[in-house]
Amino acid sequence: MLQYADHASLLTSLPTVEEVLDNHASELGRDFIAYRNHVYRVVNLCLAIVGDSRVELEKIAVAAVFHDLGIWTNHTFDYIAPSVAIAREHLTARGTAEWIPEIEAMIVDHHKITTSRGNPQLLVESFRRADWIDVTRGLRSFGLTRTFIAGVAATWPDAGFHRRLVELTIDRWRRHPLNPLPMVRW
Predict the structure, then answer these.
(1) Does residue 1 lie in a domain region?
(2) How far apart, in whole angstroms, are the C-alpha atoms of residue 2 and residue 9?
(3) Domain contains 2
(4) Cβ-contact 56, 123 below 8 angstroms
(5) What is the tally of structural domains in the chain?
(6) Is position 83 within any domain?
(7) Looking at the domain assignment, is residue 136 inside a domain?
(8) Are 112 and 185 spatial neighbours (Cβ–Cβ below 8 Å)?
(9) In terms of C-beta density within 10 A (0-12 exposed, 13-18 middle, 19 or more buried), how is residue 100 classed?
């Protein structure tokens, strides 16, 4: 299942990612580059886990570009539902509504602590692992080499993404101390 791709094969531009990010540039504001880099890190990590499946590339791109976007579009750290909603709109407008259940599962489960179950489990679980690798800065590697993870991070630098997550977490903790991380699931 795990493929150890080399750094030369990293994807650095995807039309869907660029289009969606450009459409939401004003909402992303100063976090535009940080989020863009996070999206590309997750895409490349997911492809390495899933086996560089170009067949699934568009699904991975859609899930990646929308998975956290609700933070900015809806100004909330309880962003899963808003992220799913805008992904659904995108998929419906593109004539790929049949992808909605899978993309929704990828977005809903991306902060799940335990293994994702369901069908098709491979892509959902691979996406979950890719996001955890990035969020933990490689502390959780799920079998990918530290060298590969470092190469992805060097290609797509943090640009303040993790700092922004800490700021959002602290703000959410202050406002909702009994539910500080609503996106995390078991």
Answers:
(1) no
(2) 15
(3) no
(4) yes
(5) 1
(6) yes
(7) yes
(8) yes
(9) middle
Q: Residue 128: CA atoms inside 13 Å, Cβ hemisphere, count? A: 25
CA dist 9 and 21 (Å) reads 22
pLDDT per position as a tens digit, 24-67: 999 999 999 999 999 999 999 999 998 866 668 999 999 999 99
Question: What CA–CA distance (Å, rounded) separates 106 from 62?
Answer: 10
Please give the Cα distance from 36 to 25 (Å, whole number): 10
Work out the burial of residue 36: count CB atoms within 10 Å of its CB; fewer than 13 is exposed, 13-18 middle, 19 or more buried: buried
Q: Which long-range contacts (CB under 8 A, 24 or more apart) does 141-145 make?
A: 142/2, 142/49, 143/2, 143/49, 144/2, 144/4, 144/45, 144/48, 144/49, 145/4
Q: Is 58 buried (19+), middle (13-18) or exposed (0-12) by CB count in 10 A?
A: middle
SS (H, E, C) 64-104: HHHCCCHHHHCCCCCCHHHHHHHHHHHHHHCCCHHHHHHHH
**Pairwise CA distance, residues 49 & 137, whole Å:** 16
Judge whether residue 7 has pLDDT over 80: no
Structural domain containing residue 92: 7-175
pLDDT category of residue 8 using cuts at 50, 70 and 90: low
